[in-house]
Design brief:
Number of strands: 12
Number of helices: 13
CATH architecture of the largest domain: 3-Layer(aba) Sandwich
Shape: globular
Helix content: 25-40%
Strand order of the largest sheet: 2-1-3-4-5-6
CATH topology of the largest domain: Rossmann fold
Low-confidence stretches: none
Largest sheet: 6 strands, parallel
Distance between the termini: 28 Å
CATH superfamily of the largest domain: Glycogen Phosphorylase B
CATH class of the largest domain: Alpha Beta
Strand content: 5-15%
Oligomer: single chain
Number of domains: 2
Amino acid sequence: MSAAGRLRILYLEPYDAGSHAAFTRILTGGLEADWTVLTLPGRHWKWRMRGAAAWLALERARELRGPFDVVLASACLPLAELVGLVPALATVPRLLYFHENQLAFPVRAEFAGERDLHFGVTQLVSVLAADRCAFNSAWNRDSFLVAARELLARMPDAVPAGWLERLAERSVVLPLPVELPDHPGVAGRDVPAGPGRAPGPLILWNHRWEHDKGPEAFFGALARLADRGVPFRAAVCGERFREAPAVFDEARARLGARLQHFGFVEDRHAYLDLLARAQLVVSTARHEFFGLAVLEAVQLGARPLVPDGLCYPELYPAEFRYAGEAALAAELERLCRGWTAGTLELRADRRALTAPFAAPRVLPRYAALLTELAGGAVPLAPGPAPR
C-alpha cells in the first residue's frame, strides 16, 4: 500500500487503441489507486505481442521496479516473458484481461489453414503466469477454452497436465465498463408516417473496416434490398485502416444516393449524432467478443440486428438476432417495409439492454477482484467515471 493507504497498481497495455484505450481511461479514472500506466500505441498488433515484453523490460525498467500490490495486464502482452525478464513481478499478484483471444479470431479466407498459432500459444502460456484471468464475455472465455483444448490435442507430446483446468479455475467474466453516451437522440422516436418520413429507414454499420467484421455479408444484404426495390438509406462508418476490403469501394459506387454517410467520423459528437439518427444498427461480425459499437447505437435508440451467436446472446434477446445471411436480408426487408408503411417504429428507448454495462455498475466488480488479489481495498473514485 502507498503512504496514502491506496493500492499500487501496475497497468500494462501494449495495444492502447479503440476499446482497449477506452478501458484504460475508464478503469484508471474510475478506481482510486496509485496507478503506474505503461502503454504502447495501438498499431502493429502482431509485433506488439511478439516484442512488448522485451520493450517494457528494457525501456521501462525504472517504472517496473515498483513496488506494486497488483499487476493488471492486457492479454496482448506476453505476460510470462515479462515476469521472466523482470523477476520482481513474480511476487506480485497478476490479473490478465482478455479483450479478445487469438485462438477464436477468424482467419481470412485466402489464408485458410495458415493461422499463426504462436499468438494463441502465447496467451495460453500467459495464463500460467497469471493468478486470475478476466474475459469481457462468456463467449470470449468459452471459445478460448474450446480452441485451446483442440490445440493442445494436436501437440505430439510433452503436454503438461492441468493446463486448461488451471485456466478454467482462474477465469471470471468481467464486461467492459462502458461510458454509455448521453445524447438527445436517446429518447428519440420515429417521425410519423406521411410526407415527413424519409425514403426508408437509416441502416447503420459502425465497425472496423476489416474482414472479421463481415462487410461482404452486410453489403450483400443491402444489394438484395436494392434489387427488390426496398426503401432504405445507409450509413457506413468505423475505423478504416490502410488496406480495407475492396467491397467497401464497390458498395459505395453501387449504393450511390442511398448512402447518407461513408467513412470514419473523427468528431465524437458528430458520431453520436449519426448514431442517434439511425433506425437500425447491424452487425455482420464473424467474430465479436463484446460488441461496443452496437451497444452505443442501442443506447441512443437504434434497433439492433445482430448474429445469433458469438457474444450477442449475452446482450440481446432473440427478437434482435438473426441466423444466417438469408435471414438477415429477410428481416431487414420486413423491418424496412414496415417502417416505410408506418406500421413499425424502430427507434425506442432500449437503455434497459445497455444499463448492465454502464461503468458505475461494472467498476465495483473490478474493485472487488483487485482487492481480493492484492489483499487491500480499491475504492471507486469520487463521482462518475470521466468521459
